[in-house]
Amino acid sequence: TRLKALQTQQQLGMQSLSIANSASGNVLSLFRS
């Protein structure tokens, strides 16, 4: 069960990272235009 919890935590972390990356990319593109 501990392994599963760690895996889900890693997945959530990766998802939040990708979301933050896409959000910052959108902001940057807004500033560029």
Automatic annotation (TrEMBL):
InterPro entries: Flagellin_C
Domain called Flagellin C-terminal: residue spans: 1-31
Recorded coiled-coil stretches: none
Protein name: Flagellin C-terminal domain-containing protein
Cross-referenced Gene3D superfamilies: f41 fragment of flagellin, N-terminal domain (1.20.1330.10)
Pfam families per record: Flagellin_C
